[in-house]
Amino acid sequence: MPRRESNSEIDVAAAYWSAKLDGRALSETEQHQFDEWLAGDIRRRGAFARARAIMVYADRARGLGDSNDLLKAGGPDLLRRREVWLGGGAIAVGFAAAGVNVLVRGDIRPRGPVLRTARGEILRKPLVDGSSVTLNTSSTIQVDYTSDTRNVDLLQGEALFDVTKDPGRPFVVRAGAARVRAIGTSFSVRRHLDGRVKVLVSEGVVELSANDGALPVRVNASVAATTEARSTKDTQVVVEIADLAPADVAKGLAWRDGMLSFDGETLAEAATEFARYAPRKIVIDDPELAREQVTGLFSATDPEGFAKAISASFSSKVDFRSDAVHIYR
Fold this sequence. Notes:
Blueprint: H1 7-21, H2 28-39, H3 42-63, H4 69-74, E1 82-87, E2 90-97, E3 100-101, E4 114-116, E5 123-126, E6 132-135, E7 140-145, E8 150-156, E9 158-162, E10 171-175, E11 178-182, E12 186-191, E13 197-203, E14 205-209, E15 217-220, E16 223-227, E17 239-243, H5 246-252, E18 259-266, H6 267-274, E19 281-284, H7 287-290, E20 293-299, H8 303-314, E21 317-320, E22 324-328
Parallel strand pairs: 8-10, 19-22
Antiparallel strand pairs: 1-2, 2-3, 4-7, 5-6, 6-9, 7-8, 9-12, 10-11, 11-14, 12-13, 13-16, 14-15, 16-17, 18-20, 21-22
Helix pairs in contact: 1-3
């Protein structure tokens, strides 16, 4: 059985290929060798992306010239070179910036891309390791892969992650104080405005830690886990677990298709959910009507259609105004 490459060995090879590609095209033989190397291990794509990012970062910083504030503060030697070192069997790509040589090891690295969606937008994007992310409305993530871990920060909103298996590099999502760790699975994470974090696992298993230092809670497929609304560093944050039927999992992920699924929520809760997707608000003017429960599947960006359906179901009236849809009796 062939020996598995270490992460550091992959980083060294990634640095070599990044240097090869810097400033010239590969020969036909080299291109074939590079393609074979890249396809040989899923970790290599992420390592190569980091190596290229470091070179691009150095080029951009140097290209700023005298307008670069760092250069002005530190003089011409502050950002003085990008070099390729080959010797003693080691290959490294780095640059001197603020007196620091940055090597392709993930020790000091530029942060990865930020992905975001506008209100009402659903976006699916592939990630460099073969995983993918689907962002719900008004959501933002920061991707930050290293040689050891695949990190994603959910800064706001909700995202569904379909994770490619890589036991050597866990996939970790941080959402506020919560931390979700997976190796290969499919799960969604939502940050509520009140501080709660909800994790819904559709395939595989994840570990949910409500706070740094807290013991992780194992969350299996067809299970939803929600942390209580608390933003302190208390390690006793409660995690509520709920088993779901397959149909409930599908309803919880209906937003992927631009739909909202309700099953016993009040009209007031439904109106709040619609507000995440469409600028035209739904206002329930009758408090008693607002407490009525609704069931059904509705287009997330069609509050008018929802209001008409509610009007027919609850014998209520609808007033379509420019800024809002009012439902009343």
